[in-house]
């Protein structure tokens, strides 16, 4: 069984986080916030522990969480899901993806992703022995070309995995692109998996859940997680919303992966999903300021920077600094600048590295003073 890169090696996130620790550099590699989330969420989980919510929750998740997820889908997107039959709590979005891909694909099926792709997709597609087909997202817009999407579909396409807002490029899929994908999914009888973990972190660009489009819900598996929305990446509370027959198949796999997880943390995330609208808008505006701070620092250090529309990450092109291989450069970057980043090729098949060789992903989900320091250190590197 092979990982995303065809090897069973340590993930790039683990490698670079370890490098940050040993070198003492600022870790803008792995995407996790350095501040706690809302006190209401933390208190609800603490109270759930005190109140004795400490044993296995139901296989599909605590009712309080499933109800909160259903209400969230209705409130933000006007999507109705039945909390008892169309919602499944998972161990983060990661388990949701694993159970979905393992349940719905077999050897020989084709699975389409947008490349660069989040590394777990590639690994899971390999575990399922399915065939990975990619649609390129090219600098600087990182939007898929519609003809490339049409060309990726075939009679063997089983799934297309979308990720909007996108990790690592920070792009958001527009309505016309989503409509085309729904049309092609119908034509080829494929299912749509949509990873929306950054759904609340967009900067003036509307997040459109594909499941809200006409004719989409019946063939869409929507995945999200509390990690990014509530600064609780270590809690690993994720979820799936999907039509009942599809969800049942996924649950059949999920029960043997983890069975269940995080009962008191499920209560915390349920509380978070019910926070007022201002919480969600403040989350995005706070991250927009951080994006701008780091973007300015990277520009003054000489990188070419694409301003992300959403998410936690900014892509910086190191070509103007004379860099030809960002993977090598990222290994020395902690030493020369005291900052850790991730080469974008970690999200790209080796055959396609050419288009991405000089790009680096930096995370800006960090405190303002950390970003100021990182920006100053990167500028000083010149
Ligand atoms: N999908 C994407 C696009 C991600 O960036 C991440 C990392 N948060 C995940 C899935 C995994 O989410 P979780 O930590 O909830 O498993
Ligand atoms: N999603 C986060 C990132 O892209 C963390 C991933 C991980 O550690 N597996 O950095």
From TrEMBL:
One annotated Gene Ontology cellular component of this protein? cytoplasm
**What family, per the record?**
Belongs to the class-I pyridoxal-phosphate-dependent aminotransferase family.
Keywords (A to Z) from UniProt: Aminotransferase, Pyridoxal phosphate, Transferase
Please give the InterPro entries that the UniProt record associates with this protein.
Aminotransferase_I/II_large, Kynurenine-oxoglutarate_AT, PyrdxlP-dep_Trfase, PyrdxlP-dep_Trfase_major, PyrdxlP-dep_Trfase_small
- Organism expressing this protein natively: Salinibacterium amurskyense
CDD domains, per database record: AAT_like (cd00609)
- Stretches assigned to the Aminotransferase class I/classII large domain: 26-376
Q: Which residues form the signal peptide?
A: none
Q: Which Pfam families match?
A: Aminotran_1_2 (PF00155)
Instruction: Spell out the PANTHER family in the cross-references.
Output: FI04487P
Q: Classify the source by domain of life.
A: Bacteria
Co-factor requirement: pyridoxal 5'-phosphate
- Give the GO molecular function terms: kynurenine-oxoglutarate transaminase activity; pyridoxal phosphate binding
Name of the protein in question? Succinyldiaminopimelate aminotransferase
């Amino acid at each position: 069984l092979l990982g995303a890169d065809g090897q069973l090696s340590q993930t790039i996130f683990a490698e670079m986080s370890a490098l940050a620790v040993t070198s003492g550099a600022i870790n803008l590699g792995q995407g996790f916030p350095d501040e706690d989330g809302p006190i209401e969420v933390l208190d609800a989980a603490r109270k759930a522990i005190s109140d004795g919510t400490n044993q296995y929750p139901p296989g599909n998740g605590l009712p309080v969480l499933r109800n909160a997820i259903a209400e969230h889908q209705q409130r933000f997107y006007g999507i109705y899901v039945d909390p008892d039959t169309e919602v499944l709590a998972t161990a983060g979005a990661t388990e949701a993806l694993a159970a979905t891909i393992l349940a719905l694909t077999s050897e020989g099926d084709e699975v389409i992703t947008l490349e660069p792709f989040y590394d777990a997709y590639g690994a899971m597609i390999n575990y399922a022995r399915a065939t990975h087909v990619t649609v390129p997202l090219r600098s600087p817009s990182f939007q898929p070309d519609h003809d490339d999407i049409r060309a990726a579909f075939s009679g063997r396409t089983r799934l297309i995995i979308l990720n909007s807002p996108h990790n690592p490029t920070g792009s958001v899929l527009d309505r016309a692109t989503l409509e085309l994908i729904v049309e092609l999914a119908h034509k080829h009888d494929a299912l749509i998996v949509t990873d929306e973990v950054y759904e609340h972190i967009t900067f003036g660009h509307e997040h459109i859940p594909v499941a809200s489009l006409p004719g989409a819900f019946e063939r869409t598996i929507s995945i999200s997680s509390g990690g990014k929305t509530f600064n609780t990446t270590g809690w690993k509370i994720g979820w799936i919303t999907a039509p009942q027959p599809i969800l049942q198949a996924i649950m059949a796999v999920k029960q043997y992966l983890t069975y269940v997880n995080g009962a008191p943390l499920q209560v915390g995330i349920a509380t978070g999903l019910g926070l007022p609208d201002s919480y969600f808008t403040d989350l995005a505006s706070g991250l927009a300021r951080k994006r701008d701070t780091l973007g300015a620092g990277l520009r003054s250090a000489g990188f070419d920077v694409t301003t992300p529309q959403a998410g936690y990450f900014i892509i910086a092109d190191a070509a103007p600094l004379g860099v030809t291989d960002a993977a090598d450069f990222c290994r020395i970057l902690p030493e020369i600048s005291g900052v850790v980043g991730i080469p974008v090729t970690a999200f790209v098949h080796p055959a396609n590295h050419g288009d991405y060789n000089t790009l680096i992903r930096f995370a800006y989900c960090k405190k303002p003073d950390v970003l100021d320091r990182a920006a100053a250190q990167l500028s000083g590197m010149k």
